Amino acid sequence: MCGLLCGRRENPIGVAPDRVRFSWKVEGPLPRWRQGGYQVLVGEAPGALEGLDLVWDSGHVSSSNSTDVRYEGAGLLRSRSYFWKVRVFDERGAESYWSDVASFEVELDPHQDWHGEWIGLGRESFVMDPPEGVGPVDPIRNAQAPAPYLRRSFGVEAPIVFARLYITALGLYEARLNGRRIGAAVLTPGWTDYSQRVQYQSYDVTELVRTGDNVLAVVLGDGWYSGFFGFQAKHAGAHYGERPLALVELVMRDASGREVRIASDGSWRSSTGGIRRADLLMGESFDCAREPVGWDRSGFDASLWAPVCCLPRDERLLVADPGPEIRITEELAAVEMRSGNDGTVVVDFGQNLAGWTRLRVRPGAPSHVRIRHGEVLAEDGSLYTDNLRAARQCDEVKVYGDEFVFEPCHTFHGFRYAEVSGYPGELTAGDITAQVVHSDIPRSGSFECSSQRVNRLYANIEWGQRGNFIGIPTDCPQRDERLGWLGDAQIFARTATYNRDVSAFFDKWLDDVRDAQLPSGAFSDVAPRLGLDWGGAPAWGDAGIIVPWTIYRMYGVRSVLERNFSAMRAWMDFVAQGNDGYLRSANLGNNYGDWLAPRRDETPRELLATAYWAYDAQLMSEIADAIDQPEAASDYRELVGKIRRAFDEAFVEPDGHVRSDTQTAYVLALHMGLVPDALRAAAARNLVRAVERDDWHLSTGFVGVGYLLPVLSQNGYDDVAYRLLEQDSFPSWLYTVDRGATTIWERWDGFTEEGGFQSPEMNSFNHYSLGSVGEWLYRFVLGIEPAPGAVGFEQISLRPHPGGSLTSARGSYESVRGRIAASWERAGDMLRFSVEIPPSVHGRVHIPSADPGAVREAGGRSASMIADFPGKLGVREAVFDVGSGSYAFSGPLPDFLR
Ligand code: BGC
After folding, report:
1. Pocket of ligand 1 contains residue 481 by CB under 6 Å
2. Which of 68, 233, 496, 606 is the most interior residue, by most CB within 10 Å?
3. Annotated catalytic, 562?
4. Is 0.85 topped by the overall pTM?
């Protein structure tokens, strides 16, 4: 057994009681093995798992499930370690060995376990209440305020055997114990709607506490709480409050079990230091002369520091961070450095990313060094920053002759290039690196094919995800926006689930989505909501249903459905209001349509909205079934039927035309099951004609693009899907690749055909939405797809769709049951396909061929069935039943590939 997770995280410290759910994988190779049952044991010590002193024994449960298994024992104590292990049984009842032991700790009781107050810089007055919408604060002053430094010294008498630090901030914090930075997480505590929910991190600091004098130190930043964020041009900063504050609870136990607690209270001292200002959009300034040396260790004289200001805790919910930590995951070296005439040096890191630069200033003259960050260069080679709008992305450091390594802690930038000015002496490549920062989400997918340009596209999709999954899924990491747009998230969610295990990440963000839901039941356009009361937009609000369903489908995490079900129902009720005729024409909020469709968006908004409503209803019926709500399921099924009929009447013509004749209209109608079966073939043909009319270019915006290639491939038009994939004139994915893109752009022509950039008002070079084609690369090019209706890849349907100019493709997906790999190549007249399937997974392999009867598995097995291949009309496929194991097949190439 391997991959033991609790709450979809490895050995979490701080997990909510309702998120204590266990997952595991069975290690192969175990040919054709399937799980028939499991047994989970939980105890208070690893040793207890051997004996009778158990907290919970699930007993032998007959089930093939291995994700999201709920803890059903007695109440768990807070701030205690628990240990667990699992064994599994095969279908005949034979047991496996026991897994290794994993652990978890339940989060604090929000009402009883916190003893501290919110503390911040002394000698200041504070406004505690979150302002309504926009803060009454002067944002410029705020962005220029020095960071609060807080410290508390304490003595420890006996050796400590258990120490946990629970810490959060309204704002950002970085914590240190005896001069050592605690944990690897950055930008903590992350972003939530701080007026409702504040998440904290929980750290094991047992090794850092020492007998004798200790110092706990915290540096605060404005972050999302009180700094610039969102549309800064329109709204001043300080969305939630005026000044950052910290809340701390350090719990220590010695060998005798005696407990000592250090909480944030009036005994802490405060001052300011080297960080003169720090802001997420604007950047950070550090002055070495102002840094109090040794302030975070014992022996420092803090007698001149002011007592902190204290504010009582209030109604805000305090929760353990359920998501993955935001961390520095990679360091990139400069690939090119160019000096300008004005003494600046422009550094190219070769990759657009989110994070910051780390700069070593060598000994020399006192200097004021500035580092500005941007995604692209202007024609004259200088840094282009117009598209950042009001964001400045500028870090500064003042040095006085000594060597110093500068790295900001309370900001992040979206950039590929850095422009350094004021550097003392000559800046060399060894002096500066880019630190890549994002939610550290385990990688689960890989993809590689014979086209280097498509490989670059795939890499751009992955980098787009990395640059934008920072605590929440944002639209972009660079300009004054960086918001959790629901539309972007829903269209990209499926791709995201293949690239990385985003189950915990999205589970956390769905908390934000629920917090942001409007009293009307409308899901908002962005979550967290930041005081904007926008909601109800088709294809945006629908994320509240599509995202939980995608997480369930891909990972089998049923609890995500349970947690969000009542919010989803409220959304369905909201959508139904005013739409009595089952066409969704009222309650459409900002109604963005097929956002950023190239040239013109001609898809009727009512059509798009109604299609999404039908899709929601369809998914709701499946969701209700999955969580045993049969009545709700049948209500939603009935609703689907009504919306379909209304849609057909309003938009589908008897010859299979869908009104407006746009690609997006066909794609939505086909994907969302809105074209009667008898007309599907005609509608698909009409979609192809629409593509042809655009000279084999796509004409979809954010909304249509996600399903475009899947719909073509499912309806017999792989050739058209490949043609669009490999198209390289505007608008197309390879148009951006050929212009040097290293991430997905917001617009198909961020850099226009005429030369020059699109309007700086909206021209991000790191927006993941149009990267939703990633799902097609996994599902169709590689053919890694769950079987229809299957959950968590228990049943698979491995069906490669070879085509275009590709001669081979290979890749893998680390599913919740283990690694699924697929690779195919054209070898002369033959098509070879090999797959790897993990234990407990079974299903079918489908291979298109000119002569399916001649397709053989290595060893001689021939197909158990011959069927129609959905990727190309008139082509047949060989079908093999498979269980876990490795298989290789080969057969005559289908004619269309010859
Ligand atoms: C964002 C998009 C978002 C859109 C809503 C833009 O400003 O960057 O990604 O979905 O607004 O229409």
Report:
1. yes
2. 496
3. no
4. yes
